Amino acid sequence: MNSELERWLERRGVTVADVAEIVHALQLPYNPHLTMEECLESVRTVLGKREVQYVLYTGIALDELAEKKLLPAPLQQIMEKDESLYGVDETLAMGITNVYGMIGLTSFGYLDKVKPGIINRLNDKSTGAVHVFLDDLVAGLAAAASARIAHQDPKAIHYSEDGTKI
Prior knowledge:
The chain is mainly α.
C-alpha cells in the first residue's frame, strides 16, 4: 500500500520505482548482487523519516503553488524562470541527503549534474509543469537511499582504534 507521501509524489509523476532505478544504477557498480527490491525498500525507508517527509511536502507544495501562480512576487517569477542562482531548491534537498552522511551529499551532486531518469524528465521545462523543487528532492531522495545501502554493505572495511582493518 502506498503512503500518503507516495501519493503526493505520484500526483507529480514520480513513483518509488523511478527513484529506486536511480538508486540501483548508483550502487550496482559497488554491489553487483543488489536487487530492485532492496532499492525499493531503501527508498521507502528514507521516505519513512519524518524530516524527509516534511522536506518533500514543502517542496512539492511550493511547486504546485507556483504552477497555479499563487506565490507572491518576486518568488513567483523566480520559480517560473527556475532562476539558476535561487539555490533554495538544492538547499532543501540537502536536508534529505544529510540523513545518511557525506556519501549522500556527493551522490546528490552527481545526480544534480547528470540528471538521470525521472530527474531529467522533471527538469524538462517544455511540459509547462513546475518542478523547481521536486527534481532536486528526487535526487536527494535517491542519493540518501543509495547512501543507506552503501552504509549497510557487509563488505565495507572497518578499522580498529589502532588503524588496522577488522
